[in-house]
Each structure stands twice: as structure tokens, then as C-alpha cells.
Amino acid sequence: MIDTPDFRSTLASLRAQAPLVHNLTSAVVANFTANALLAVGASPAMVEAPDEIAGFVTVADALSVNLGSLTPQRRAAIALAVTAAVQGGTPWVLDPVGAGGIAPRTEFARAIAAQNVAAIRGNASEILGLAGLRGGGRGVDSGTGSDAAIDAARSLARQHRCIVAVTGVIDYVTDGETVLEVALGHAMMTRVTGMGCAASAIVAACVAVQPHRLLAVAHALTLVGLAGARAAARVDGPGSLAVAYLDELARV
Amino acid sequence: MIDTPDFRSTLASLRAQAPLVHNLTSAVVANFTANALLAVGASPAMVEAPDEIAGFVTVADALSVNLGSLTPQRRAAIALAVTAAVQGGTPWVLDPVGAGGIAPRTEFARAIAAQNVAAIRGNASEILGLAGLRGGGRGVDSGTGSDAAIDAARSLARQHRCIVAVTGVIDYVTDGETVLEVALGHAMMTRVTGMGCAASAIVAACVAVQPHRLLAVAHALTLVGLAGARAAARVDGPGSLAVAYLDELARV
Amino acid sequence: MIDTPDFRSTLASLRAQAPLVHNLTSAVVANFTANALLAVGASPAMVEAPDEIAGFVTVADALSVNLGSLTPQRRAAIALAVTAAVQGGTPWVLDPVGAGGIAPRTEFARAIAAQNVAAIRGNASEILGLAGLRGGGRGVDSGTGSDAAIDAARSLARQHRCIVAVTGVIDYVTDGETVLEVALGHAMMTRVTGMGCAASAIVAACVAVQPHRLLAVAHALTLVGLAGARAAARVDGPGSLAVAYLDELARV
Hints:
3 copies of one chain form a homotrimer. Chain A is an alpha/beta fold. Helix content of chain A is 52%, strand content 14%. Chain A has one domain: UDP-N-acetylmuramoyl-L-alanine:D-glutamate ligase. Chain A has 10 helices and 8 strands.
């Protein structure tokens, strides 16, 4: 997938169009997510005041919704933003952090996923949890290999007519029929907080510029996996990996 | 400006006095801002509970107000802090993130700027927006060169009897009469989130130790530009730039 | 302490058990804290929605409560979490950021410390403030050497039947009787925001896996001090130090 004209075209569009990606995300990962979006050529914004959201999301090229460290305030902001995105035709992407492991989170994730989500990216525990199956996650890290969630991903994709990506050692991306595999990345990436969250935001950026959504998501994960693998090859610890990852995202 | 005794004196005061800078800022940039302040020798604090703010801001040497990712809670906290700062004589600095591009943000920025602000630092879109002119920004990044906002900066400075800095490839700093230029920095700095926000916090730190406010702001931007240029000269990506920038801030 | 079988056993348990540490902390330090926990082998989570907290904290292996940049929302979340932790038998650790320097913060810190806290880690100003003595801090940085707070630490430890650590150039750890010293670390660590906060979270991780609590806290600070000293020995600025520190935490 790395050398296809399609992938190169998505990358070129990212840099040429600098899509404005509106993020509703956790304070834990907001900085890393914004830097990852800037590195790939997108323009990030985190607008979460209730009176600012609806106006902003319709100007944005994509909305990225992340459920990490959810607060009642962010839950309300997300509900407003998703409604405005759907009404205004802004594509939106869901990262269901903690779904499956935290019951109220799972309920909320299911409720918003039903609102015309363009793509969902999660680890196996989250995708299984969202599909109503037992994931085995504790906290926000997955306890299960990504292949265990392929069927759940396919079923969710059909249910919501969206793209679903389950990431892990191998990433699987499906529209409910076709399943693409991306086998890049590096195990050390699980030692950096927000790697998955930033990947979801990059999915949103690619969805904004690549109209073929299955490809958009697969290209985003290819970009993430390439940058992660290249970064991991030249560093020897998680602190350095986060830094090198941003450098490599800008260089791919 | 780099080799003047004035600049060296501001730097020396920063390190000797370690001004306590109270920040009300976005979760996206809070960590980077605190680290930038520590690097230049200041002592950062982020106090935002309503019952803690007024007492704290009067102990602080300066208050830095940043409108990024504004929430209703932070808006209320900022209103309390600015009132207490003005009453207690603590100088305060405004970074009007998103002004011009987000209507409620612009209104709020204008309302608080009228309360004895010591200095305002923004990009061209934000300064134009604050002055009631059309900026052309989308999201929080500027769509316009900094020179397009010089007149707006001068007019705002006269209106609020404060210093206004519009930053970009060239930074312009004005008290409404004199316009100083700082042409340092590097384009790669726009690929790191919070660079402008951290610059505004450093402006607050310099205002705390340098009584000549036009110089204080120009010195802060000189420090920022020098560190950014030196960092950009020895790295090759935005992840490394953020790290090297903090190192260089501590070294200038 | 570095080469003792006990220390190696705590480290091995951290990596083998990957304790789930629930953090309620400031947006300023949340990312660095999560990365520090991942680096030592723990699994961090930041769950702060009122309807999610009680269920989550009882699943977690430890709770880390940090009072930095406290908001009314986080104050309420902390109260819920501490009650649930005590009822469910999850050990919890307090980092009383700003105690002593900010009156409402001091009151809140004292009130929750009385609820069966397992360990408290703070700088001298904070430990003195918590003990009702004058600390001399301004903002969140200590104005006093750690040895000035040894008696206060011992008294707090006896009062709450917990472990108290006062950190600085030398760290002191006490159960109210024995006082252990850890003299590692490096002065440059004070130029990186969140170093103390991350240390407190690592204390929580060690308390989760090492039943001897005095040793658990001392081992956590040994780990922090070793990583800090090794990182400081090979970098020349605070930006690089934060990165190298995470690498070294993963390597100890």
C-alpha cells in the first residue's frame, strides 16, 4: 500500500489542502494529537465551548471525537459537535477510548456511533466492546490481539455504514465487506500515550482529503505505521520515540 | 536588539528574579507553556479554581491569559483573574487565540482587552480580528502575513494604552507610536503547537521584570526568535524542534 | 538501595504486573505522567467523569491524586474517587501540589489526606503546609530545602498512618519512625514541569506491587532519581531532559 499512487495522492492532498481538523479530545493527549496533525500537514483546532462548537465544526474539514478522560462537559460538547457535523456534512471520526472497559463510556460511544460516523478506530478491546462483545481490556489498553476483533469490526461497519479500523500489531480496516491489512508500526509505540488517539486524528485528516473512505483510513494507518516503524528503528526509548515519531510523520 | 545591554539586562532579571507567572491557558499547550517558562528562568503556575484565583493572581508577578480551547469554566476563571490582576496591580498579557475566526471568542477577547491589558500578542488574523477587521484566518492558524496587521496593532495599542505584538515571519511590536521589528525565528516553528502561546507566556515573564513595556515585549520575542532559530538550525523535524527549542530557551 | 534484591524485586513486579494506575491530575502534567507510568511498565488511566469514577477506581491497582491546577470539577471527582478507593481497598497516593501556598488547596489537601491515604509525596513547602507549618513556597515550587520538612513529614506519617516523602536535592521517606534517604536525581529536574507529579504517580505504581509501603515509596523515588541522574548526565537542556528521563525510566 505504501508505494501505490493512491497513497501518494492522499499524502499530497494532506499537504496541499492542510485540512482543518476539529478535535474534541482528552487533555492527556491533546498536545501530542495537535502536533501529530501539524506534522502531517493538517491544521488542528480544539474548540469545545458550547457556543463556539456548532459554528466551528461546519467550517472544519473533519471532526475527530476521542472519548479519553471523558468529562460531563466534553460529553455535552461532543453531542453538540456530532449533531452539527452531521447536519453540516462535516465527516467525523470516533475513537472510542475505554469502550468495553467502562460501562457508561460504552453506552455513550454506541449512542454517538449511530449518528452517521464516517470511521471508527480503536484497539481490539474497544471495538469488541462497542460491538457488544467482551473485550478483556482493563483500563484503556487492549488485552486482546487485533485479529480477535475483525468480525466485530466488520459487523460494526455494516451496522453504521462506516469504516472500522481495529489496530494492534496488525491493523485491520474494513467497510463491512473488504478487509485491508496494515502490518507496520512497532511494539514500542504502545509505550507512548496518545499514539492511538493521534492515529484517529490522522484518520480524520485523511478522510477530509481522500473521498474513498476505506482507502482514506488505510492510508492514515499506513502513514502512522511507517512513521512509527522508522522512528522506532532509530531510537531506544519511549521518550525519544514520541519525538522521532513526529519528525517521521512530517518526513513520510 | 540581541546584543544590546537592555536585552541582556532583561534576561539577567528573568533568571535572577524567577518571576511567578500565573497562566490561564488551554490544556493543549499548558505543558509546553510551563516548560518554556521554566526554561527561561520563570516560575509557572496554572491556578484556575474560582476560590483560588483572586488570592493567587495578586501574589503572582504577571498573569498570562490565553484563549485557546476556551471553555465556559475557563472564561469565568479568566474574568475573575483579570479583575483581580487589575485591582491588585499585577500586569497581565492577552493571547487572543482564535479571535477573528470564532465570533464568541472575538467578543470575549475584546471585552477583556478593555480591562487594562499590559500587552497583547497574536498572529495577524487574531490582531486584525481583535481590531474589528477581517483577518482571513481559518481555525487558529493565521492566513495572513504579519505586516498586514501593523496598522491594526498600532490602533489597538493606542485604544488600550498597551503594547501589541503581531508575530509571523517578522514580528512587529508597537506601543501605538514606535514599531519595533524582530526578524528571527524559523518557519518550522509553525509546525509545533503552542509556540505562539508559549511566546505570550514569555512576554508575561518579561513584562514582570522589565518595566519598559515596549522593550519587555520586544525582548521576549527576541528570546523566542533566537531560541527558535538556533533550535531549527540543528534539528530536522517538528518533534525535535519542540525539544531543542526548550533547550535553547534555557541557553540563550 | 539501588542494588538491593528488594529494589530489583519491585522493578520486576512493576514490569510483570503492569499495575493499572488511575490518575486524577492536572492537564499540565497529564501527558508526562501517563508517559512516565508507561515507561516504568505500569498502565495509566485518567478517568474523571463522576459516573465512571467509582466503578473504575475499584478495578484499578492504585489511585494517584494530584492537586495541581485544581478545578471544582476535579475536586468533586477526587472526593468521589478517594471514597471509592477507601471502600474498595484500592491504595491511594496524594500529591498535595500548592498546599501551603494556596489556602483553599491546603484545606482540601488536609481533608482528603485524613481518608486513609497510603502515601503522600510533596516538596518541602507542600509537606510543611500540609502539616500546618509555614513553608515559604510561592506558587508551586518549593522555597525550602527538603531537610527542613523531615519533622513535618514524620508527624504527618504518624497522624495519617501513612508513608510521607519529602523530595528535593535529597529525598526523605518516612513511616513516622524510620527515615530513609534517597540522594539521587539532578538539579536540572526542577526545570521540567511535572517531574514531581510523575514521581507521585510512580509511587502509586510501586505501592500497587510492593506490599511493604515504606520500601515501595523509597523504591519509586530511587527509580525516579536514577532515571533523572542518568538522563541529566547525557543531555544539556530541560527539553532533552524530559525526553531522556522517559527513556531512562524504561531502561532502569
